[in-house]
Amino acid sequence: MVFIHRFLVTVLAASLLTSANLAWSAPAKVAKIKHTDNSQGSPLSGAALDAEIFYDILLGEMATNVGDQAAGFALILEAARRSKDEKIYQRAADIALQARAGDSALIAVQAWKEAWPRSREANRYLLQILIALNRVGETAAPLAQELAHDPQQTQTAVLLALPTMYRHVSDKALAASVVERALAQRLSAPASSADAWVAVGRMRLLADKKKSALMAAQYAQEAAPHNEGAALLALELLERGEIGALPVAQTYFDSQATPEQRLAYARVLLQLQRNSEAQQQLQRVIQEKPHVAQAWLLQGALQVQNEQLLEAEASLQRFLTLADLAKTQGAGDVSGLTQAYFLLAQIAEKRSNYVGAEGWLNRIQNPEDVFEAQVQRAGLLARQGQLEQARALIRAQSALTPSQERRKLQAEVQLLRDAQAYRQAYELQGRIVEQAPTDNELVYEQAMLAEKAGLLDVMEQLLRDIIARQPGFYQAHNALGYSLAERGIRLAEAKLLIEAALRHAPGDPFITDSLGWVEFRLGNHAAALHLLDSAFKARPDAEIAAHLGEVLWSVGNREEAEAVWKQGLLLKPTNETLQETLRRLGVKF
User: Fold this and answer.
1) How far apart, in whole angstroms, are the C-alpha atoms of residue 421 and residue 87?
2) Is 515 helix (H, G, I), strand (E, B) or coil?
3) How far is CA 554 from the centre of its chain?
């Protein structure tokens, strides 16, 4: 009878496991397993072990199915300990995980790992559970074991996945340290050094250690000059403002990259205002893959910024053609239509074609962009001398949130700025700053308007407040230094301020222009010419042209000065600095 009872239990348990479609199956050779634990007086017989294990499994699954995961877990874990079967250990861990009982899952996996110390699956479970429980310091050993089992062909993917594994832990600095220790041998091995350093760099970046992440990217590139991971890490660093990563990115993108990667790099360069370099990358994308619509859109935006209106219009029309084709075929990226319409409206506005500009704005249907379209319509009114009507149009727009109300005020400030109503613009910007008095971006705009309004003492105090709050806000250093240089006062201090800005943004053409201008004011004409020439080559701009032309004029190179000024006028004929320079020096074209 006992044998028949156990046989029925075994059959019932097997039936339940099959019908439940569990992730593990009953062990086929359980009868051959013998306990070697010292607590066991003697090994159980195969038949007794079969029945007892399956009985625990049966009761455990029944308890789990009715919602008593704690009892189910305990019974399945007991069956695992008796059988030493990996799949039963895994089932116990899964029950605990489904019940969100992390500590119980850890107990099951530790028992599994003890029974099967070389099991890769047990080790993976242990690593993931320790990370989930935020026990980062204990992950070093299972991480090292996982990496030791990593086959050569999957090494790069495994290494690059490490930051994703640890991204939610609270102590990311400790996680970076654990990973770096686990990768110690790989960091110096030629075959794995580059990928290992990329993984370390991403972990450091996860911990917001940008400088040390940059060092890792540099080490990775030294190990493998064209390593893709090092280049992508450099892009992430650039997006976070670490300009020192630029040489790492340049080394990779100057030689090889996919068009999609070049497009991403161009976007980062545009954020950094390195427009000429971004243009080069976009041109390579267009040459290699001319059907990438987004490349034409970015190129058009850049050309509008550079006042290359004919070229911009052609690029944007090409984008619209490709976007329409992609839409017709039901494939491809058709995002960016609204941006293209805005840019084409801006081109029409610059040509004083207000009817054409209105036509492009009328194409904008996305409700989220209607406000911006109204802002641009207001700009059209203001350009036609209807400033008050333009302001009324902005004020009439509904604002559902404080941020939308701020955006309305900012749009009105821009209208006043464009109309050269600087005192009114400054006062209105003051209302915006009152809502966020420590927002350095907003205060910086207020300072620039104060300068335009002739409130130079106010401007200087606002910029010094920004520098005190955020020493790395290099735009404030540059603006204050340039203002002093422009007025010809405290030139030594002006130079120090501008040099500080340049340390934060090396190679920035506008800061280089400021430094060239202060050198000119100091009487260092050779240094001024070198700096201004390099700035103008890096970023052809009307204001830089004004400064470079004046230095050339002052040293007797008048024909060259006139050529530079004419180029500046082509870029932006209304630039105030250039127009004032020509008037002051009595130059007419």
Assistant:
1) 76
2) helix
3) 45
Where residue 45 falls (left for φ over 0; alpha for ψ -120 to 50; beta otherwise) is beta
Q: What does each C-alpha distance from 218 to 155, 208, 295, 313, 421 come to in angstroms?
A: 20, 17, 29, 40, 49
- Collect contacts of 174-177 with beta carbons under 8 A, ≥24 apart: 174/136, 174/137, 175/136, 175/139, 175/203, 175/206, 175/207, 176/200, 176/203, 176/204, 176/206, 176/207, 176/209
pLDDT at 334: 58
* Gap between the Cα atoms of 158 and 149, Å rounded: 11
With a CB cutoff of 8 Å and minimum separation 6, the contacts of 193 are 186, 187, 219, 220, 223, 224
Alpha-carbon distance of 74 to 77, in angstroms, equals 5
Residue 42 reports pLDDT greater than 80: no
* DSSP class per residue in 478-501: HHHHHHHHHHT-SHHHHHHHHHHH
Is the pLDDT at 396 greater than 60? The verdict is yes
CB-CB contact of 479 with 447 (8 Å): yes
Average pLDDT over residues 62-81: 90
Neighbours of 114 (CB within 10 A): 11
Is 530 within 8 Å of 504 (Cβ atoms)?
no
* pTM of the predicted model over 0.70: no
- Report which secondary-structure segment, H or E, holds 565: helix 558-571
> Using an 8 Å Cβ cutoff, are 81 and 55 in contact?
no
Which DSSP state fits 45?
P
Cα distances from 549 to residues 109, 169, 348, 501, 524, in angstroms, run 74, 56, 30, 24, 15
Length of the chain: 589
Residue 387: its pLDDT value, please? 94
Instruction: Name the burial class of residue 21, with classes exposed (0-12), middle (13-18) and buried (19+) by CB atoms within 10 angstroms of its CB.
Output: exposed
Distance CA 90, CA 305 (A): 60
**166 vs 101: CA distance, rounded Å:** 20
* Rounded Cα–Cα distance for residues 537 and 114 (Å): 67
Select from 115, 113, 95, 112 the least CA-distant residue to 104: 95
What residue type is 459 in one-letter code? Answer: M
Mean pLDDT of the chain, nearest integer: 87
Per-residue pLDDT, 38 = 34
- CA 197 to chain CA centroid, nearest Å: 20
